[in-house]
Automatic annotation (TrEMBL):
Keywords carried by this UniProt record: Signal
Name under which the protein is recorded: Copper-binding protein, plastocyanin/azurin family
Pfam families registered for this protein in UniProt: Cupredoxin_1
Positions of the EfeO-type cupredoxin-like domain: 20-116
Secretion signal, residue range per the UniProt entry: 1-31
Length: 118
């Protein structure tokens, strides 16, 4: 599976719990560091940082600080945070190494790159 999605919206407590449980169950011991969650802020119509490198198994959490709604949407359609209103966050867990370009579905000039290392 490419990604596991965990929403951290206020009303998604049950879903969040399920996502964390899934992470827990699939968390085979790794030789290196424990999986991390990396944060990307969406602010002033930019992803910050716009380029991020993570390890397979890590999660990325996007948080929208703008009044306008935004998404983080993979260019090739493999993953999507869905619409994030102001103050909302969504986290995705990346299992498959690769370089992923993404954009905001509402503002395609907003772009970012995520690199997942083995
Ligand atoms: Cu946007």
């Amino acid at each position: 599976m490419l990604v596991k999605r965990t929403y951290t919206r206020r009303r998604a407590g049950a879903l969040l719990g399920a996502g964390l449980a899934a992470l827990f169950l699939s968390g085979a011991p790794r030789a290196g560091d424990a999986p991390r969650t990396h944060k990307i802020d969406i602010q002033k119509f930019k992803f910050a940082p716009a380029a991020l490198t993570i390890k397979a198994g890590d999660s990325v959490e996007w948080t929208n600080h703008d009044i306008a709604p935004h998404t983080a949407t993979h260019e090739e359609g493999s993953w999507d945070t869905g619409t994030l209103s102001r103050g909302e966050s969504a986290a995705l867990t990346f299992e498959t190494p690769g370089t992923y370009s993404y954009f905001c579905a509402f503002h395609p000039q907003m772009t970012g790159t995520l690199t997942v290392e083995a």
